[in-house]
Design goal:
single chain, alpha/beta, 6-stranded parallel β-sheet
């Protein structure tokens, strides 16, 4: 099948590459000419495990192409995916200007039947807005479909190639059949393609992300309470997680959630509810608790130094909002480092993938190490913000020897409390 993908961010690039991997002829469109040229030359602009292999293979096979021309993309694609940014607006709502702007252009340019697919995370009713924007100038038939993505950064390729489910919001039999044909290679093991109306599909994405954010936040509240009463959140988590009604996933406490999805999507659903006269009180609490959770270790660090961080150096391991990505959007590390800088601390950092993005944001305010132990040189204490695998089994002797004080503030509960105490560390974690 001939596919066009408009937008080459995390979602668009993974979508285009994985669709090409199943034999489709894909062209990706982006307005950034420099980025397009780099991709044509085989450079992957984001870090996502396994994406580079598929990317290179499909470019060589001429199944994956790139262009800055929307006309070229629309002429090529029978199915056109809109994988455009929907950033958080000032009032918390999703900004649809990119999506609707391209939709208006599509109406002027298409000459034959197309299926236009909203792949971006968009509020309820967006498909109808896109349909109207295209219809203003279109002189041919078209359909608009909602097809939300459920890709986890760090696992996006696997999630696309082996999805638990595919949601298709469509009121057109013709468009539905094309979407089912497109996705057939990905659901051969029997996982469902769930067809529903467009509004329900749009809400499914927001509901799923908001529920997961709520689950994380609830566990963080339990962890905070554990510290008050002397309970161990790890034991509580295991006791809860074995209940099949609850499940083991998303029960790990820490310094809050970040990224491009959960913070934005929770706020967008909260705002959409208010616009309809409905107050999502649970989401109000989720947002409030998560904002506090991101810096929950800051008072403990300040207290350790008796309120004076001036001239102290904090080593930070982990900068991305989660492991296996270079994405720093809404990363708790940013909130922690801003707080430390405001207190006059010096900061030395290391992350396997997110260093360039952090350096673009902080510049010379931070010291950038080339490896995890290099970040410890001259540091008073260590702060862990992201649970990368390489941080899970460090050389404790080397770690102890490098730090001025054997003190670790662990925002991701990587280590055993008793072992760290036995090894002579002052070890501060979450809820234990």
């Amino acid at each position: 099948m001939k596919i066009a993908v408009i937008g080459t961010g995390y979602v668009g690039l993974v979508t285009g590459t994985c669709l090409a991997e199943t034999g489709n002829d894909v062209i990706c469109v982006d307005i950034d000419a420099e980025k397009v040229e780099k991709m044509r030359n085989g450079a992957v602009p984001i870090y996502e495990p396994h994406l580079d292999v598929l990317f290179e293979r499909n470019i060589k096979a001429n199944r994956l192409q790139f262009t800055t021309s929307l006309d070229e993309g629309l002429a090529h694609g029978d199915i056109v995916f809109l994988a455009l940014p929907t950033p958080e607006d000032e009032d918390g709502s999703a900004d649809l200007s990119y999506v609707l702007g391209v939709a208006q252009q599509i109406g002027n340019k298409i000459k034959e039947y197309k299926v236009i697919v909203d792949k971006s995370t968009v509020p309820v009713g967006t498909a109808e807005k896109v349909r109207k924007a295209i219809a203003e100038n279109a002189n041919c038939e078209f359909d608009v479909v909602s097809n939300p993505e459920f890709l986890r950064e760090g696992f996006a390729v696997d999630d696309f190639l082996k999805p638990e489910r595919i949601v298709v919001g469509s009121s057109s039999d013709r468009a539905t059949k094309l979407m089912e044909k497109l996705y057939a290679p990905f659901v051969r093991s029997g996982n469902p393609v769930i067809v529903m109306d467009e509004k329900s599909a749009e809400l499914t994405k927001y509901a799923a992300n908001s529920f997961l954010a709520t689950k994380i936040t609830f566990m963080n509240e339990i962890a905070n309470y554990c510290e008050k009463v002397g309970a161990d959140v790890d034991k509580v988590r295991r006791g809860m997680g074995t209940d099949s009604r609850i499940g083991k996933r998303f029960l790990f406490p820490g310094i809050g959630y970040g990224g491009s999805c959960f913070p934005k999507d929770v706020k967008a659903l909260q705002k959409a509810g208010r616009d309809e006269g409905y107050d999502f009180k649970i989401l109000d609490s989720v947002i409030e608790v998560n904002e506090k959770q991101k810096t929950i270790l800051l008072p403990k660090i300040i207290g350790h130094f008796n309120g004076d961080l001036k001239g102290k150096t904090i080593a930070v391991w982990g900068l991305a909002f989660k492991p296996e990505t270079d994405d720093i959007r809404e990363a708790p590390s940013i909130y922690m480092m801003n707080g430390l800088l405001e207190q006059g601390a010096n900061i030395s950092v290391f992350d396997p993938e997110a260093m360039p993005n952090i350096e673009r944001r902080f510049g010379d305010k931070l010291k950038y190490a080339t490896n995890m132990y290099g970040a410890l040189e001259g540091a008073d204490v260590l702060l862990i913000c992201t649970e990368w695998s390489i941080f899970r089994t460090p050389d404790l002797n080397k770690l102890r020897g490098a730090l001025k004080m054997p003190v670790i503030f662990d925002g991701r509960n990587l280590y055993d409390v008793d072992e760290m105490e036995h090894e002579g560390f002052t070890y501060v974690s979450i809820g234990r």
